[in-house]
Amino acid sequence: MVSKSQIKLIKSLSQKKFRNIHKLFVVEGVKGINEFLYSDYELVSIYSTRQKFDVSEKYHLMVEERDLKKISFLKTPQEALAVFKIPEDDSVSLNGLTVALDGVRDPGNLGTIIRLCDWFGVENLICSKDTVDCYNTKVVQASMGSLTRVNVQYSDLKSFLLANRDFPIVGTLLEGDNIYKASLPASAIIIMGNEANGISEEIKDLISLSLNIPQFGSLQKTESLNVATATAVVLSEFRRG
Amino acid sequence: MVSKSQIKLIKSLSQKKFRNIHKLFVVEGVKGINEFLYSDYELVSIYSTRQKFDVSEKYHLMVEERDLKKISFLKTPQEALAVFKIPEDDSVSLNGLTVALDGVRDPGNLGTIIRLCDWFGVENLICSKDTVDCYNTKVVQASMGSLTRVNVQYSDLKSFLLANRDFPIVGTLLEGDNIYKASLPASAIIIMGNEANGISEEIKDLISLSLNIPQFGSLQKTESLNVATATAVVLSEFRRG
Predict the structure, then answer these.
(1) Which residues form the tRNA/rRNA methyltransferase SpoU type domain (chains A, B) (predicted)?
(2) Would the CB atoms of A180 and B228 count as touching at under 8 Å?
């Protein structure tokens, strides 16, 4: 049985406001939960219909499917749901490549970018305050455990960049140099912008290396690349050496 | 006013079965509709609350917001909805790079891959029969008009590949050669696999050039790249020259 107050608490964690008050977030599905269990994240409780997890019984509640339905954020609950603590912000020590997001709003895009940082060995992901919360359930789902390996920090992006001007500050802009031909530094802060508006004016002013991903083919296109796929191309290009 | 029979017809187009029976699909939003209007797609009708489109009046219905709500597939309808004809399958004449999808199921992934093909000048996208339908509303939304510039064809993938063995058949596999170091052909069929299971066994057997996108960083990762971001990396690498 899940108590009414537990249901209320867990349900409230779908909202950023309550995640910040309680400093808690939700992970759903056996695979995702195991990734967080074997990381530095601190477990609060697991609710599971069948699957056993390798944790002390006091954290582990076996529940009926109908109870899981009451607390799950998914249309089709995935056998288990866990609550973890949101860690305190670490001080960031930049190292090699860093990605900085300027107002990315779509949870799927942020989740995908976290996976890309994980894949391409980017330790730190800096998010502007208006970027979607990385403990949003859809971000946690889309990041597939990579959130346990990438340090995601929210900060005032302009101040952050001004404090780190010893790193080249890279942005992809239409008028930038062809990324395939430019000489790319081993250490840099790579800025990726908002889905609709790109990089904001005040952040653009701080860019020291402006790059462009060229289009191919004969047809005229009105669209840009999606921010997550553009991040994939940029990180691949920086890493390929 | 939108008649009951129109509402019923349009609503039915959320299902592949009825799209195939009527040979019709839906585009929502002014920007998307304009992309399809200025393409070879044939318009059937536009339902709009305010926005005027540059088409004959017989195709153009001004409707109330509550009527648009009745026919829209979106939670928040976007000012206008249009119905277009699904074109007959063209015969495919392969040229340069072709992408072939082996069971991609997520509409967002297919939409993103269509955008990538558009960006990287890939004219033909071949989809296995179990790949999600490109006229699915979510695919149309995610492809952002690129569907008007990329020729998407569904076929039995094995037969298609057997009929085109004069092209190198490329697949990304764990045991493949480092894509950053391999010599890549200018013409090829690039196969991308299912989200959960990758490329199927019978298709794997046909691969003539097996490539791998290396991971970076010191931490051990359990996850692969998402199929859309992997497609971004592969197409970028083939095009960069």
Answers:
(1) 97-235
(2) no
